[in-house]
Amino acid sequence: MIKNIRHFGIVVKDLDRGLYFYRDLLGLVEINRGTLTEKETEDYIQVSEKLIYVKLGIKNNLYPCIELYNFHKPILNETSSHSHIALTVDNSEKIYEELLKEGIGFANKPIFDRNKQNKVCFCKDFDQNILELVEEIK
Question: How confident is the model at residue 3 (pLDDT cuts 50, 70, 90)?
Fold first, then answer.
């Protein structure tokens, strides 16, 4: 049985740009970072490349929600291994405007879902991973 979602692993081409997007623009905090050897990545994911990872989470919560992976030699192709990542945000209109100013593309402006309980919008990070930004309406 699944108890909860542990984290989303995202391969980024440029770790600094990934951190800029997820940490600086979206406000996640760095929990820790480390390196996996070629042997470790071969054992875990059958890719024999050195890997740097950064675990990011929500402030005051030491449980990582996103792990950024940057391989020594790029392995990223044009397709993604997931459909999207959903993140809860405080103010969808504000983050929409802030990210637009940074050149982030959106599929839509924040709109209400069919139950009028959330405002949602979709954007892509610098590596074309799709993000669903969700504001819960009280």
Answer: low
How many separate domains does the chain show? 2
Task: Give the integer Cα–Cα distance in Å for 30 and 33.
Answer: 8
Q: Which of 73, 55, 52, 77 is nearest to 64 (CA)?
A: 55
pTM of the model: 0.72
* Domain membership of residue 126 as a residue range: 83-138
Per this entry, what is the length of the chain?
138
Read off the CATH number of the domain in which 91 is found. 3.10.180.10
Note whether 92 and 137 are same-domain residues. yes
- 66 and 94 within one domain: no
- Tell me the per-residue pLDDT of 48-83, one tens digit each, with 9 for 90 and over: 788 889 999 988 876 668 889 898 776 655 444 445
Residue 111 shares a structural domain with residue 138: yes
DSSP track, 46-95: S--S-EEEEEEE-TT--S-SEEEEEESS----SS-SSS-EEEEES-HHHH
